[in-house]
Write the structure tokens for this entry.
Amino acid sequence: MGEYSNVKIGDIIRLLKWLERKNQSLIVTRGGKHQLLVKYSFWARPFPIPTKHKEVSRFIVKDLMEKLVKSNICTKEEFDCRL
């Protein structure tokens, strides 16, 4: 998946559950109305993912991938494989 497209919310939730099992410092919680928060102990702020619609924007997917790879939580290939 070179260029990211809009991703269904179920696929994102499945990816986040896998990441939680892989890394104990990563926590996914509900935050506010219609959103998930991805918290990592070394990040200054949590990463919000809106869940109001049935799809997550490709820009949010790309930003999440870059943040996870930069923090050494997973590789780009693992991220692409799980989506």
Remarks:
- The chain has one domain: 7-82.
- The radius of gyration is 12 Å.
- The mean pLDDT is 91.
- DSSP finds three helices and five strands in the chain.
